Amino acid sequence: MALVDLISPEIVKVPLSADNKPAVIRELVQILKDAGKIDDIDIVLEAIHKREDMGSTGLERGIAVPHAKTGSISTLTISIGISPQGIDFNSIDGKPSRLFFLMLAPPDQSGPHIEALAEIARLSRSSAFISTLVSARTPQEVVELFRVE
User: Fold this and answer.
1) What is the pLDDT of residues 126-138, one digit of tens each?
2) β-bridge mates for residue 104, sequence order
3) What CA–CA distances, in Å, run from 37 to 24, 74, 79?
4) Please, which pLDDT band fits residue 2 given cuts at 50, 70 and 90?
5) Which DSSP helix (H) or strand (E) runs through 100?
6) How far apart are CA 22 and CA 6, in angstroms?
7) Which of 8, 31, 97, 103 is least surrounded by Cβ atoms within 10 Å, i.e. has the fewest?
8) What is the distance between the alpha carbons of residues 109 and 129, in angstroms, rounded to a whole number?
9) Do the beta carbons of residue 72 and residue 38 sit within 8 Å?
10) Using the 8-state DSSP alphabet, how is residue 69 labeled?
11) Where are the alpha helices (DSSP H) in the chain?
12) Considering all CA atoms of the chain, what is the largest pairwise distance in Å, rounded to the nearest integer?
């Protein structure tokens, strides 16, 4: 399943209102709840924080990919948030993260999860694409950018 197939305006938040790592995670999970993608916020938050405790999912170039596996969903689920000013997410390069991909996968489905992570890694190599995404002003604009990428 291509990443673009998972992205729709209701799972994108531009800009995020959060200003710290726990608040970003909570806001991205709330987006999924509001979109009807998850039922129990607490189970999802616990899974994501457990994964973060093993090591930050803040990557390089302003990208963070908080993720977890949970039995509370049946298929790969994603939410996207953009923080133009950046938020400290304990990234590998020590720089603030501005583009967030929160992913949830069922415990018995590794393939789609790995494919989505690989696609995000591929996209992250394009500084121009990252810059354009971070400059997006609406969820629809974000969706359109992924469709043309």
Assistant:
1) 999 999 999 999 9
2) 68, 77
3) 18, 10, 10
4) confident
5) strand 97-105
6) 24
7) 8
8) 29
9) yes
10) E
11) 21-34, 41-54, 111-124, 127-134, 139-148
12) 37
Identity (one letter) of the amino acid at 58?
Answer: G
Determine how many CB atoms are found less than 10 A away from the CB of residue 125: 9
| The residue to which tokens 């963070």 are assigned | 64
Structure tokens at 3: 């990443």
- State if pTM tops 0.90: yes
Specify the pLDDT at position 124.
84
Q: Is the peptide bond between 9 and the residue preceding it cis, with omega within 30 degrees of 0?
A: no
**HSE-up of residue 83 (Cα within 13 Å, Cβ side):** 24
Tokens of 117: 């992570």
Locate 130 and state its tokens.
């990252």
**In Å, how far from its chain's centre is CA 53?**
17
Residue-level length of the chain: 149
